[in-house]
Amino acid sequence: MAALRPHTLTETQKRRSLLQRMTIVYGFFLLALLIIVARLIELQIVRGEEYNEAAQAQHYGDVRLPAKRGEILGMNSKTGETNVFATNATLDLIYVDPALIQNDAEATAVAETLADTLLTEEFHEMCSNGKETCPRELIIPELYASAFDPLLLHKIIQSGSFLEPIPIGLPPSQVLQIPDLPEARRLFARNIERRISEKRMTFVPLLYGATKVQMQQVEELGIEGIIVNEDQRLIYGNPEAIRQSSLDAYARALGTPLELDPVVIRKMLRTRPLRYVPVMHRLPPSLSLKIKEHQLASLKEAQDLRRQAADIKAAQEIQPRLRSIALIQEHWRFYPDTTIASHVVGFLNTNQEAQYGIERTFNPMLRGQAGRISTVSDPQGGQILTADQTIVNPKDGDTVVLTIDRSIQKEVETIMEEAVRKYQADSGQVIVMDPDTGRIIAMVNAPLFDSNNYAIVYEKEPIILDAEKEKQVVVEVFHPETNARILKAYIADVFTEEGRKALSEKTQKALADIEALYNIEDVTRYYLYLGENNRREIFPTQEKGLWLKYKNNIGVGAYLNRTIQEIYEPGSVMKPVTMAIAIDQGEVTPMDIYDDTGPVKVDEFTIKNALLTYYGKVTMTNCLELSINTCMTSVGFKLGPKLFHRALERFGFGHITGIELEDELPGEMKPWRKANDWPMSLLATTAFGQGISATPLQMVTAFAALANGGKLMRPTIIDRIVHADGTVEKTQPRTIDQVITPETSDTITAMLISSVNKGYAKPAKVKGYQSAGKTGTSQIAGPGGKYETGTGSTVASFIGYAPAENPRFIALVKLDRPKAKNITHGAQAAAPVFHDIAEFLIKYYGLPPDDKTGGK
Questions:
Q1: Domain range summary for the chain, segments of one domain joined by +
Q2: Cβ(199)–Cβ(273) under 8 Å?
Q3: CB-facing half-sphere around the CA of 183: CA atoms within 13 A
Q4: With a threshold of 0.85, does the pTM exceed it?
Q5: What's the pLDDT tens digit per position in 99-127?
């Protein structure tokens, strides 16, 4: 199999001639006709469903043949079996053609049939309780919209409508006035009937998000049938109210304020019958089948009535009462495991555009290439059967097989979700890697999101701020065109007259210029600060003191794969890397002594130990067991800046790992080019993981070299690419560098075993097994390099591997800003999480015990 080249896509297409030139005219036409007929049979029968959409969109001379998007698979790390993370689903859209409805009674029958069929008990239950799986077509004011209103329940409670206390977590259906199923079906039927009773197109949106100037300019034109809705910032047209004889002039006049081509505007505003009213997307197959059964019954009913008709004319007037109902196949990306590996896989949005993860990184491979049928047309646009017809078959997308083990990914996600909740962290990450190959077995981010319902990250819930808290709300105003930040200030500085006066003249003018064109609220973001560099985005409501916040606290930040797209100062998990470098260079041995007498003064800074405890004479092994900053400072000094910087570069710090995912960050490490580039204070702090930034992936990759004999492996998340033609490109393990000797690897492993057995890392130990690892607690740098203090101002982490002597896995655990009472350190939060993950992995792989001590 060929070596994997994940970021390239072969564009060469095999073009073959389907029609051979014949010397005999009759033979030429016969062969051409046979080939074309065969192709039509394939299109209409064999692949008819696949090309249904293409046939509907056909224009003279060219037919586009869609390609099938490739799948994304996972792979069991024990058996090699695959599972599906992303595939393609074909589901029906149901719509009504009002032009085929003969009278009001038929419209009522159509609406009631659809409502009774589509609004199932299951949909009623999930919609009544505000579940994200509720079809969006049912989230309308008369049905279930109230169940999705985060403010409504709060308002009901505040109104005193309920005399008894409302239990926390009570489903909305038990509090809100949501109709029961029969009433909901009746209301849904009336909604459908109202929409399908229109025979002509009367609503054409021209511009969403219109500015003040655009709305004013359109209103000044005074065109009858062009409506401006200032509340919704919407400009739309009613073709039936527009004088069609003046349409050219109107289109030219509207072109400038709407910033649209007048030709496009003219087409949008021409009068035409309403032929398409969508009722519901993504019908479950069972509902599609029921609709087809209703249509068949309607057809049989019409046939029976025709046989009973008085004459042929009367029979011809009888039509199936449901003939206006139609189903169209829609192709959707489907993620069977919903949340599992969603940060790795990514998703396709409603426009079928690849967003995040593998879906975006490998989009050129996954999407394939559309084919086409090109024909020669006569002057009237008719297709001519000739040998010059060109048929290019579509090339289906490639299948991407990941190294992610679904069973491990799922279990680790469950563990991490619970840890984020338990320790009240903003977010958390875990990477599980095979240290010998660099293969990523699990890559977890919490909070999770559902790739099928990715918009759930926008869900909000109410919070109440008293008057003092409201004063502390910070706003940021952005220029709507350049997205440049105009102002960061307290809310009163922007939205009160007194506050405005205190701003500089330049800022006041900038705000005034924006307000002349836009609503200032639309370009303002609001934040509630919980710490110097820790904030929540919040959203104002019409009620004073009542605000909204994201349910998951981070909103669209949930899409971020923080294992590669966010850097942090790693803290004490860097100490083993520093120690390994020093041992490898012959600067220290495990039994060398450091006299820890107190804080160490370096330049203008004072280095202290985390718990302000000093231990006297300690060995280098003790330095790791007790995580002694002052000791590591001395190790850094022994190495010196030039040697230390070069060694860290070889370990992968300061540049990306090269994993097959977009937007990987390289971390931050100050360059060293000449003497004095690194002050002694930077050398000292880098030795224990402050003053240097890395991604979690960089850290676990570097740590893996300590475990595997000193080899820095290129991490990979791709097992293989299976091309549409059946060829396979396999990823092979790749060694980047031999960063330390195997002997040093054995030495540092023994020291890290002692760290787990005797040191702060004890909570990570799994009974009966030797584990090697190190805790980490790092401060978070704020503006100007000053570190935050107080609750939620740390990152707690742990990196470890097991079994220590012959590791089957290495895992990094990281918790961002844990805020649970008395929980700030890696030993308290991250090490127990590693224990749970390691215990699961040991059982999963069936690893035999290797710890003869019998202790935990």
A1: 98-196, 204-269, 284-323, 460-549
A2: yes
A3: 8
A4: no
A5: 999 999 999 999 999 999 999 999 999 99
